[in-house]
Each structure stands twice: as structure tokens, then as C-alpha cells.
Amino acid sequence: MTGTLTRLSPPAPAAKEKYAITESIAPGSIVYPPPNMPMDVARHLIADLFTAGEHKTLVYWRGDWWLWKFGHWAPAADELEVKAELWPYLETRECEHKSGMIPWSPTTARVHNLMEPLAILTRINPGNDAPMWIGKTKITTAPTQMVALNNGLLDLNERKLHRRTPALFNTWSLPFGYDPDAACPTWEQFLTEVFSHDPQGRQALQEMAGYILSGRTDLHKAFMLIGPSRAGKGIISRTIQALIGGGNSVSPSLNSLGSEFGMSALVGKPLAVIEDARADDDRRSNITTERLLNIIGGDAVSINRKNRDYWNGTLPTRFMLVSNETPRLLDTSGAIMNRFISVKLRKSFAGKEDPTLGDRIAAELPGIFNWALKGLDRLNENERFTIPDSMNEVHDLMRDMASPMSEFLDEHYVITGDEADHVLVRDMHPRFNTWREQVGGKKIRQDTFCQQIDAVDPRVRFKNTAVDGEKKARRVFGVTQKAGTW
Question: What is the pTM of this model?
Fold first, then answer.
């Protein structure tokens, strides 16, 4: 007899029959679908390991696994963290075999084959931003108006406390409970002393604290605190970070923020505090400025996470810059300056430090939370931040440092905005480079000069055109040279 030997086996069950078999296995049962039915196994694992009440406690969002922990959702360190939950559990399960019941026997391949079905069954649309409702709830308040604390979810509109639930996909929670009667006398006395020269600055800080706690990003503002050593900046910075929770904030530098992987630490973090905010690299400073503008402005960003998929979306991060000196953020247009609410502290407490002050303020966090809510109420009512008395001083210096072109024009030219006033670029450009070298800067090409001067002030315009019968040439309109400057 010749030909191909055909191995006879019973026909595979139809899809409906398969599903009927696995549906008959009760949640929590020791009997599981076999490894060759990964989607059905995934359904049982979700029911047994990743469900609290009616809600899933594992989701897949924007390329990451997220687990519900301690009242908020946190990203798994890696896929292995999820597999670590699956493996020991599956070792205790059995499945049917033609020879009878056998151990499910997880292997690397079998567990790996479950990850895609789990992702499909728990996937959240990557286009949706946190916070968001992802399950049934009787709470009708918008998720953006809910703040998670140790003792519940606080409705910021009604100041009503609800039970914490995985139905709210929120990526951070506060490390203390809500107490509507809590006060913070030590903190308030400290601020009275620190802001004695600028009461408006104190109000702005209170509003920014409420803005950070609320999760809002719609006003597109960041906070800057400038002042000498021992002026209270450190205590303010540490208190705001403690208020939001140590694990909910990051502390990048300006230089690291402009690096290839510099934004990766911001994912899921509501607060970034940049201490000693100084940028030493001009090229990287340009990148840092661009990224700050994008994030503060609520633009979607693409983040390179080393050895992982790119993260794409809108960050919830609010920035607080703290420094002894005004930071240099290169930006000819001055747009970055307008993103900051800035305060300058003047009084140094050097030699008068109270070593117990930090601990006494930390004990008042529930009261400081209430203090911040008052700032949020005022911000909601006014729909804008209070402007500190010292902000103009900070921004004037910031403008000069951010835009050498602006400083150059201030020193050597009068901005008239009149089209009849104009200067040839071939005369103006070498003067700018000479001035730059005198102040320790670098020369720039003529094309770059034209771009920067066209962006520096709406009254100043660059054109390549003919004037009064003269030949076509590059000119800067709206300026005249100050007498005796060259």
C-alpha cells in the first residue's frame, strides 16, 4: 500500500461549542480552558485576578499595562510585573485532556501567548486622556473634578467624599485623607513672612497649588520662584511636592529635559519641579524651551522612552521652576515668558533658620490641602491667576536673557513700528555679531538673524524688498538707530 499516511483525530469543536465549554467553567474554578484557547484563558484570568466588584483592575493603555493600586492607577514597571501575577496562579489550575484532568502547566510560551488577548480585553482607547471614567458609577461629576485621597474621592465642585473605585482611571492620588476642618497655621505664618513684600505673589502661589491639585491644565501656566539662598524656596518646593505626593512628582533639570529621553520621566506625573533652574547648553536650551512650550500649552507630544515604544499623548504635568537666579530660556518670540506666573523672593533667613519648621509644616498637609482649595476657588471665580507684584521684574530680565535680539534692539535701536523707518540687514547684522561677542555670545548667520529679528516684536518686520527706487535688498522695518551707538 502506497500513499500518504493520514493521522485520524476527532474533529475540532466549532467556535460556538468551544465558547460554550469554557463559559461553563465558573470564575475561580480550578478548571481552566486549555492553553490552546488563550482568549478564553484571558477572560478567566481577568475575572479571577484583575476584577474588583464589577470593575477591571488591569488595563492596557498607550502601550503600557496599568494596575489599580491604593486608590489610583499606576503603570506596571514592565510586562514581567503582569506575568508575575499570571504564572503562579496558572500553576494551580488544571485543564481537561482526553486522558483526564491535567495541570495547566504554564511555560514561557504559554504565558507570553496570553498577553495579547489580555491587552485586547482590557484596552483603553489611547486617544482618551486621564482622568476618565472607564466603568459604571453613580457619580455624575466629571472625572477632571475628582481628586483621590487616602479616605476617598473628593468632588471638587461639591466638596463631597465618595468611595474610591477603579471605575475612575486616575494616575495619581494624595498621600493623606480629606478633613474639611483641618488648618495650617504654621504654613500660613511662614508665607506671611516670606511674601511680606509681595502679597499678590502669596495669592498666586495659593492658586497654583490649587491648580496643581485639581489636575487642570487648561490655563496653560507654570510657576516660577526666584530668590536668594535661605529665602524659603526650598520649604515651599518641598511642601508643594509633599502635598501632591512624593511619587507623583519628578525633578528633572532644564538640561535633562532637553535630552533625548528627557521627557520620559514626565509620563503620568502631575508635577515636575525643576530646582536650580539653569541651562548651560544653548542648543539644548532651545529644545528645552520648545518642549516646555508644548507641554505647558497642552500640545500632544511624542516621547522617546529608552528601549520601549514611543509614548504619544498630552501630558498632565504642571511645572514649577525654583532657582536662585532667573533661568535663561532661549526664545526670541518671548512666548515662554508668558507661560509663567513668576515671583521673586527678597528676604533671606540665613542665620535664622528653624530646623523644626519643615516637619511642623509637613504635619499640616491636610490643612494645606484646604488652603490650596481656597486658591482653586479664587482661580475658578477669576478665571485667571493673580499677578504677583514682582513678576514684571523677573520677566524683564527673563526677556533679555531669553532673547539677545531684544536686548540688542533695546540698547542700540528705537522701535518705532513705522514702515518709513528701516535699516539695511547688511549693516545691522555685523553690528549684532560684534555686540554678541562683546557680551560673551556667539555669532549667528544672516539668515538666522533675519528669522530672529522678525520674531522679536510685532512692530519690527524683516523684508527683502526695494525702497524709494533703491535696489532690492534685505531690510529691517520699524526701527531707527540710536544716536551715538556706533
Answer: 0.79
